[in-house]
Amino acid sequence: MEMKMSCVCLVLGLVLLMTVSSNSATLSLGHPDNCCFSFATLKIPDAEILEVVKTHSSCPKSGYVYTTLRGRLCKEKLQ
After folding, report:
1. Pick from 30, 28, 29, 37: which is nearest to 60 by CA?
2. What CA–CA distance (Å, rounded) separates 71 from 34?
3. Of the candidates 47, 38, 48, the residue with the CA atom closest to the CA atom of residue 76
4. Burial of residue 66, with CB atoms counted within 10 A of its CB: 0-12 exposed, 13-18 middle, 19 or more buried
5. Among residues 46, 32, 30, 44, which one has the least CA distance to residue 74?
6. How far from the centroid of its chain's Cα atoms is residue 4's Cα?
7. Distance, CA of 27 to CA of 41 (rounded, Å)
8. Total-model pTM
9. Backbone dihedral region of 71: left (phi > 0), alpha (psi from -120 to 50 degrees) or beta?
10. Could you tell me how far CA 24 lies from the centroid of its own chain?
């Protein structure tokens, strides 16, 4: 009975370890949230711009994410 209990504890410990390590592996892949895949060419009125953030260096294309009163859009250069 003692041997069975230690095996059960060992298996549960390994399952817990696998669960924790798989969660951290998916978070550490480094997929940034603000990548741009298409870019707007229009001029955004300054009064509508709430925030400008440069895209992450691991994004396929560099650019800037503009948050405006109407939503978010990407531009290749700062205006």
Report:
1. 37
2. 13
3. 38
4. buried
5. 44
6. 43
7. 33
8. 0.58
9. left
10. 13
- Strand (E) or helix (H) holding 35: none
52 beta partners: 66
pLDDT in tens, the chain (79 residues): 676 666 565 665 555 555 545 444 444 455 567 899 999 999 999 999 999 999 999 999 999 999 999 999 999 999 8
**Cα–Cα distance for residue pair 68/50, rounded to 1 Å:** 5
Let me know: does 57 contact 78? Beta carbons within 8 Å. Answer: no
Neighbours of 49 (CB within 10 A): 13
